[in-house]
Amino acid sequence: MDREKLLAAVREQVTEHRYQHTLGVMETAIALARKYGVNEKKAETAAILHDYCKFWPEEKMRKIIKRTPHIEKDLLDYDKELWHAPVGAEVVKQTLGIQDEKILNAIRYHTSGREKMKKLEKVVCLADYIEPNRIFPGVEEIRQLAENDIDAALIKAFGNTITFLVNRGKKVYPLTVMARNSLLAEQKNVQEELK
Ligand SMILES: [Fe+2]
Ligand SMILES: [Fe+2]
């Protein structure tokens, strides 16, 4: 599907505010893909579709999580903000015919991250954090890190998310902790190779 068709499909699903966010994620993901040698077209498609189910009713998402074998059921015990990512991947696969697993994984893990993230997943996840409409404390620092080191930027972003949740007495989804640990290990390996 081309860009315009995908954008039109998303526009029917989300608010105008979220649509503007989607455009920001798309532009940012394309720029990051170019910088870090990732397929730009795949980054564009995943970015456009990443929040497809953001505003779906809780019950509808719950049903999809329950009936889709490869969606972890423990997700239901965590913040509902996480649900739209794996549900979105499933829905765009079924309704828009998106079959590319790399694209689907970038959508699936854009909120939580996961261990051993692929480059395309990193690009979409980071673009979601730093697109130009985002204004939250610390976003500028992550934008700066993203200029030269996508892993350092994501470590900071996940760290901020974890701290935010802990400070509010909330549960942290394990995949986010694993994502950060895994990126720290990758970083350490790179540093040791350079010694
Ligand atoms: Fe999202
Ligand atoms: Fe988003």
The helicity comes to 55-70%
Mean pLDDT: 96
Give the name of the CATH superfamily.
Hypothetical protein af1432
Radius of gyration over all CA atoms, rounded:
16 Å
Strand residue content: under 5%
Structural class: mainly alpha
As for the number of domains, it is 1
Number of helices: 10
**What name is given to the CATH topology?**
Hypothetical protein af1432
Distance between the termini: 46 Å
CATH class annotation: Mainly Alpha
Q: Describe it for me?
A:
By secondary structure, the chain is mainly alpha-helical. It is 68% helix and 0% strand. The protein has one domain (3-194): Hypothetical protein af1432, CATH 1.10.3210. The protein is globular. The mean pLDDT is 96. It binds fe (ii) ion (2 copies). Residues 50-51, 54, 84-85, 110-111, 128 line the site of one fe (ii) ion (FE2).
